[in-house]
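Subgroup meeting minutes
Present: P.N., E.W., G.H.
Scribe: E.W.

1. P.N. recapped why we're keeping a running log of single-chain structure predictions: easier to compare across weeks, and new members can see raw inputs and outputs side by side.
2. G.H. added today's entry (315 aa).
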Amino acid sequence: LIFVFILGCSLGPYNIPFNEVIQTLFGGGNTYTRYVIMDLRIPKLLLALLVGIGMGMSGVIMQNLLHNDLASPGTLGVSDGSSLFVTLYVALIAKKIDQPILLPILALIGGVMSSLIIFALGTKRRKPISSTKLIMTGVAVAAAYSAVGTLLMYILDQSQLDFLQRWQAGELWGTKWDYILILSIWLFIFASLTMSRSNKMNAIALGYDTATSLGVSIKFEFLILSFFAVAMSSASVAFGGNFFFLGLIGPHIARRLIGHDNRLVLPASCLTSALIVMVANILVSSVEIFANIPTGIFISVISVPYFLYLLLRSN
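Output recorded in log:
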């Protein structure tokens, strides 16, 4: 990850030699390299890192709670709820109140509302939770949110519409330092709380009955961990764009590398997902044939074969 970070500082429309990158990172370099690296490339790389952390950890939580390889903020429709509220912010609020802290808060509200609707429609009292039914319900709710978001676009001016189209495609847009600071603090709080419950997640992975016999309150942990996942994925979506597959493939790659202990899977998934976003960002910014392609679209294209593999394996 450190190597790719330095590589990202070096590669772009104007390549900068490795030795100059190192000098600039340690306070040296000329005016040009300092501007390109410190003002243009590092903020985007840091945002890619943070988005990877948020989506990677939320994906682990959802797959753990539902015992389903296909569960993620994208497949459950949570990201679409966050997307709708970000669209509402751009359409109705941004021109009147330009407060970056509103973005993750509104995205969280949208994600929580989406989750509540999905769980209300996809579960029944006194019956075990069906992950397949929840995912299918999430797909239906996501389609409804998408339709409402499309309708809202008709009231936007051209600049708002251009921004939302790039954002929905997975554009790493929130590269201002105040955005990065807000997202960093937000993710640090919820990621720390999630790590503190990693042992309970290990118990839940053994099955609901086994976890209950070990003293874990399934309903409480399900609610609190779901909230953490929604909070992290919503903030990542708000500042980084809609990265549909990231929360799905990051946890799987992490488990293949280090096993199933959530004390290790959680941070490994964060770093793996961050690595995916950073590599995709480097490719779209430095390879001419990928120029102007949003990072999220590039990730989706390379992730689809793996998604299909998981789907076939689960069948």
